[in-house]
Amino acid sequence: MATYDWFFNALGLRDWCDAGTSEAPMSMADLFAETGNAVEEPFYAIPFPSLDALNEACGQITQTRDVVKGLEEGFLAIRPALRTILDPITQPLSWMLDGTLYLFTQAPWFLIMAMLLLVTWYATRSVSVMLFNAFCLSFFAFVDHFGPAMETLAVILVCTVISAIFGIPIGIAMSKSNRLQRMVIPVLDLLQTLPTFVYLIPLIFLFPIGESRLYGIAITLYAIVPIIRLTDLGIRLVDQDVIEAGNAFGMNARQKLSKVELPLALPNIMAGLNQTIMMSLAMVVIASMVTAPGLGVLVLRGIRNLELGVGLMAGICIVLLAVMLDRTSKAALSRIDRAKSKTS
Amino acid sequence: MLKNTPKVKLRGLFKIFGADDKSVLPHVQNGMSKEELLEKHKHVLGLQAIDVDMQAGEITVVMGLSGSGKSTLIRHLNRLIEPTAGEIVVDGEDVTQLSQADLRTLRQEKMSMVFQKFALLPHRTVQQNAAMSLEVRGMDKETQDTEARKWLERVGLGGYEDHYPSQLSGGMQQRVGIARALTANTDIMLMDEAFSALDPLIRTDMQDLLLELQLELKKTIIFITHDLDEALKLADHLVILKDGAVVQQGEPQGILLNPADPYIEDFVSDINRARVLRIRSITNPLKSKKFAGDVEADDNLESLIALSEGDTALTYRVMSDGEPIGELNMRDLVKALVPRISSTQAA
After folding, report:
1. How many CB atoms lie within 10 A of CB A59?
2. Which of B71, B76, B104, B144 is most worth mutating to test chain A (most A CB atoms within 10 A of its CB)?
């Protein structure tokens, strides 16, 4: 006798229930019951009326495992349609990632180092940041981790650029429309709070493993959030008096955006970019589980094979890379701040 | 300048803030008060039944305490705020009927604005800020530069072109604001409490600068202030607002001598009348034959008191452009210094 028999009896559904005794294979609990070894359950062990418990009382009710199976089948059913749409759209991402990875791994180390330091100097104009970056890059090379570090850097670079390309316009649109803002914010909250593993699962089925866009999308989805938020916030925080002045001198919407709002929101947008870079780094390590190359792979190896040293060394490199990226982008940000409000 | 063709004409201007302003308008037109409107309909009355003429080449000062609607009023002229009802006629054209594109053209070419908090672009140099109005219009770089340079020089900021606004003091920043408005080369200049954020000495400097520029440029200036001294110093035409309605308007000396209601009487009672009132305003017709001396009609009373050395028995002949226009007995002068007497006498 199942716990909830009385419920279906009371409703007069007994016949209907018995008519549909499920043909599904036996569950473990059924098996136990049949062998007669069922433990005598104490009276308070009433099961929650879950699908499985109800199924015991009435065969017409589906079991949880069928629902799970249905989910899977449903997803697989819409997969071809999703793929015909998503494949061509995301193809350029694969090319960008592969191209950048090729460049960063195939070019001679001294060229890459020189290029990176040049970029650092151009962005920060700070000798100390440049010296620090030179030290870090040399360290990677010295401990033979230059290759993986550059792979990680290449992935971060591409994902940050993609995030900026999509995130800034979305942020601008949000700042202009309260309705859009109300619609987008829950999505951003979701992307930020969802444990990253959760959305790795559907991504694995949507994109072929081994194609770089798989992890590219996973990283971008995670890292795009702060730049959208801070672009929106930055534009909304622009001094209303200055915007009014723009209006009073007859600026149109485009002029206001390019001459007033974006320049004044730039410090916030740059802060968002800094966050995006840092989140890309965090995610590129996790995404090594779905074939993202770089230092994450070594960390994963350390976890899988309990190779403590490998994991620790990769960890040290990741920390250095993180500090490097953070210092550089923050120095660039403060340079913009200084240029914006030069004080004598 | 023809007095009967005003540059800017406001007729029956109403502004009600709230979601459904048009539908509560009839209540206000039927005389519902600001408090009642807020209580019953949750709408805020901004402006009611404003009729003002602003003459070309004159400084029209709109004065009122905070919350009187003066900033709301000035923002109607270039429609930064949309009116609920009424007409705003600039050069014979009703601004309320303009399309967005025409409105932008109006703002670019006919009206420029100076703001209380300067509202300069912090990421641009003084020069680039001053050139902003021309840049918006799509003028070539060279014109922008020469014009901006010219006006910066004119407001006394020559040599500061490459500084950033945050490197300048408040007074200098507002000079940039004025240069920006002048560079736009518009007939009409709107000044929203332009000098209120400056300290008193700088403020006096800026007022003098404005009057000096005005002598030469003859712009139509609409100036908002809450400071009566400033209003009296600058105004050719003074409009006093209270609770979104015009309480009194006219020539400032006239308002000072004949305040229309207790509110304005209160307002003008703290003024140093000897400095503000001009001899012209209290001159009587010529009667006497003998005078202690000649005085200029546009001098203020203070200078005459100094001249007479406080002797109230004297009578002076008042001259304007070398012609005698009347006489002034020192006794009348002393009476004019006391608000109550002068107003009851005039009434």
Report:
1. 18
2. B104
